[in-house]
Amino acid sequence: MDLRRVQRVSEALREELAEIVAFELSDPRLAAVSVTEVEVTPDLRSAQVRVLCDEPQREAEVLRALEGARRFIRRELAARIRLWRMPELHFLSDRYASASGRIDQLLRRIEKDRQKAGGSL
Predict the structure, then answer these.
(1) Can you tell me the distance from the alpha carbon of 27 to that of 62, in angstroms, rounded to the nearest whole number?
(2) DSSP 3-state assignment of 60?
(3) By three-state DSSP, how is residue 43 classified?
(4) By the 8 A CB rule, do 64 and 35 touch?
(5) Percent of the chain scored above 70 by pLDDT?
(6) Cβ distance 34 to 55 under 8 Å?
(7) Contact 77, 13 (CB under 8 A)
(8) Helix (H), strand (E) at residue 103
């Protein structure tokens, strides 16, 4: 599989998952959760979704809530993104639990987007 396609699918899934978690799910346990990264396998069968919770002590509770909503989330993703097969979602807590790690990650994403746009941002 083309690496660029895998990266595009990963980014599209991340954007849509962030919207679904923020606006479509009504579970109060997911109030302050953000989707930080999605890694899709080259065969597009599986995706690791990394989420960041504002309160580290609630991570297990947040992951359980996301696991419970997995079928709804996949159905929403299938309606929004046209793929032959929607990847199986696996939710993990983000390794960048500190604020500085999160800021570094966002800066890298901005720089990557600038490079894709030809530096016009």
Answers:
(1) 10
(2) helix
(3) coil
(4) no
(5) 90
(6) no
(7) yes
(8) helix 99-116
